[in-house]
Amino acid sequence: MEDAKRKRGRKPKVPNPSEALESPSSNIALDDVFSVSNVEIIPSTTTSTSAAATTTAARPRGRPKKLPKLPENPEPLHPQLPPAILSPSRRIPNGNATGVGGGGGGGGELSGDSVGGRVLPAMDAVVKVFCVHTEPNFSLPWQRKRQYSSSSSGFVIGGRRVLTNAHSVEHYTQVKVKKRGSDTKYLATVLAIGTECDIAMLTVNDDEFWEGVSPVEFGELPALQDAVTVVGYPIGGDTISVTSGVVSRIEILSYVHGSTELLGLQIDAAINSGNSGGPAFNDKGSCVGIAFQSLKHEDVENIGYVIPTPVIQHFIQDYEKNEAYTGFPILGVEWQKMENPDLRTAMSMKPDQKGVRIRRVDPTAPESGVLKSSDIMLSFDGVDIANDGTVPFRHGERIGFSYLVSQKYSGDSSAIKVLRDSEILNFNIKLASHRRLIPAHNKGRPPSYYIIAGFVFTIVSVPYLRSEYGKDYEYEAPVKLLDKLLHSMPQSPDEQLVVVSQVLVSDINIGYEDIVNTQVLAFNGKLVKNLKSLAEMVENCDDEFLKFDLEYEQEATLYFAEWGLSGKCL
């Protein structure tokens, strides 16, 4: 009983060792929580905490502190640290890369691509593309703009070739590529540029570049909700970057660079500047597309677009077949939906017939010889066209019938069934690439121009409008030019829209200096078909006066005999 009494007074300085070490959780050691195998060492992080836990320095004098009671299942002692720091690195969906942090979906970004120290070859096939651009000055066509540099992504395919985006090497002066983990940039040669599909093909002559590089294998067109992983070299760092997501949508998309509409994939993985040209892999490690553009708007986030494998294979096979890029053919017609029942009745369509009405036919297209306005196009290559212009695509999906046309090559033939005056007609039409009155791009060529007496004549194109009126040229350009851009069709294969770009002030052209971006309709009473015909008519003119008939009923006349004029055409 005496021993059971607790004695009052000060505790002994040296406690009983058996009592001090005894604890309900004595089977759990602090060193197990802070084990080196469970914690990744973060650079620039001090190790004073672990040093204090293992120090053997003498305990200071004074009353000893009570040890805290530990629970049966202790939580991490540093909950403020991110979970990834205290957990093993997690793997991205396609199994091609692992990394610490953000591995799931919805555009989470990861870094690294090793599994157990093994580097996956698909990642090594992704290269960084460096390009020096020298753009022409469309407003001053005899000059070029200051050169600038850019970097983007690309990847190796079979046949010692590299694929990237066309806009990545637009107006290129020099192109270099660098492999992952290398410090050497290799000079690259541009083999083909597909402006419409925004794909470019490169090659490298140096054999050293191809050592140890395995080409990327292409996979099938993915389905909705399939996992995709975009690999490239975007802004924010110099090393390779991986973003993951899923396929959100598959439909005909507008390709901004080529001003065309082709099949495309919408994904929710982040695609930033520099990702252009990088591959998108599926969960099997096969390439299912090329990252090329994204939607930037305050109301949306994580909407990126990928060029799918059917478009990529079309580009590659076109180059292999013709040793050059020939483009995607289109059907040279404008059509109207037939969803209104009264319209279908007026066009003598039966209840079981579906199709679209042809509004206009391009006079320069091969179809102009057989198709007519108000024809009802019922099918294309045996595939029935619905009243809204769609065709069956995959199970539960429909897509615009232009997808069928884009699967063809220039020069191929297609069977078209039309309804004309209650009679069904079948035609076999040869497809060709489309030519617009105002071209969407110059395919890398410098602009043409002709100068005489200070008058600068040039050809209208979308790059020219962008140079004159900025990126909002669709709102800032003159209405007549925009009307021709959107609705006019060329009447002959060589027709061009020639304008007086500006008048360089001189004594000979006093009073004409306010003429800007005005179309030239005729010269000395003869219609102007294109810039070359205008230059030839001026150079071969024997009349006393040079008379230019411009739109808005304007007229510019120069006295040829007095000034002895001569022009310059490039």
In whole angstroms, the N-to-C terminal distance is 118 Å
Instruction: List how many beta strands DSSP finds.
Output: 33
pLDDT under 50 segments (min length 5)? Answer: 1-60, 67-121, 564-568
| DSSP helical segment count | 12
Q: How many domains, as an integer?
A: 4
Name the average pLDDT: 80
- What's the architecture of the largest domain in CATH terms? Alpha-Beta Barrel
Strand content: 25-35%
Task: Report helical residue fraction.
Answer: 10-25%
Tertiary shape: globular
Q: Structural class of the helices, strands and pairings?
A: alpha+beta
- The CATH class of the largest domain is identified as Alpha Beta
Task: Describe the overall structure.
There is one protein chain. The chain is an alpha+beta fold and 570 residues long. It folds into 4 domains: 123-210, Trypsin-like serine proteases (Thrombin, subunit H), CATH 2.40.10.10; 226-322, Trypsin-like serine proteases (Thrombin, subunit H, Beta Barrel); 329-433, PDZ domain (Pdz3 Domain, Roll), CATH 2.30.42; 449-559, N-terminal domain of MutM-like DNA repair proteins (Alpha-Beta Barrel), CATH 3.20.190.20. It is built from 12 helices and 33 strands. β15 and β16 form a beta hairpin. 30% of the residues are buried.
Task: List the main descriptive attributes of the protein structure presented here.
Thrombin, subunit H, Pdz3 Domain, 8-stranded antiparallel sheet, 6-stranded antiparallel β-barrel
